Amino acid sequence: MEDREVILDIKNLRTRFATHEGLVHAVNGVSYQLHAGETLGIVGESGCGKSVSMLSVMRLLQVPPAQIIADSIKFKGEDLMSFSRSEMRRVRGNEIAMIFQDPMTSLNPVLTIGYQIKEPLKLHMGLSDDEAAKRAAELLSLVEIPDAESRLNDYPHQFSGGMRQRAMVAIALACNPTLLIADEPTTALDVTIQAQLVDLVKQLQNELGMALIWITHDLGIVAGLAERVIVMYAGFVVEDALVDDLYANPRHPYTAALLRSLPRMDGSPGEALEVIEGLPPGLLQEPVGCPFAPRCKFVKDKCREENPILQEFAPKHNVACWIDIKTGEFK
Asked: What sign results for the dihedral spanned by CA atoms 306, 314, 178, 78?
């Protein structure tokens, strides 16, 4: 991986939201790099900051109430934090594309599918309407929608849920982006369609050579898709490792508990799944100590007093924890 170019380099990203109750600390100092062609999974429970961190990178949050702060967010060497709105519009949909969770709210219901695919082609690539229409039909065929040319004139409500999500993939791929961000794109789909969509995105990534960030709470999807996994909790990155190493040797108590809560094919009949007791912390204040401490069975006094930084435990395996979960003692 080291011989591949770093295309995204995020340093100390923090995102806050001003609310009537106070300042919500949604993302709390996230830092990582993504290499060209790499597939990165970002996992964690709802509200942990997965989607907000990517919307912050894309600068798609309304400011205010949002506050996006970072030492730098470099994409292909350029700091996106210094970009104007018009410069970000040049990047979005062209070099960085995003597939959203619910295609019915992401697609405009009063515009045809063809119009919505043609729009980025005309805006970013300067194609004529006829050229864009031809390319739009090719894109719908690429995402395996049958009779693609005639479907260009259909509206989103005339597509099934799985076909709408495929149309979203077609729009995202229209300008051959360097980076594709998929924000829980299979959540609203049944299991069979989920598998088809994951296979489709993997196939297209291999063909087009783009980097992929897949945001999900489903560790099963990540296992067969990602090269590397980042685990988030309460706005922090708590573990970052290659996928096989993370599943075989989780080193953060939260990651280990998440994996133990998955159904297993080799489990005993009638064996109950593990439940992580307690609730995530409220985000109106930044945690003083480790955010997972109230739910952690390994917790020590130091965990409640000081939040550990993310540091290397083994090659390509970073963990934010004071405790060695194999022994239950300090590292």
From this structure: positive
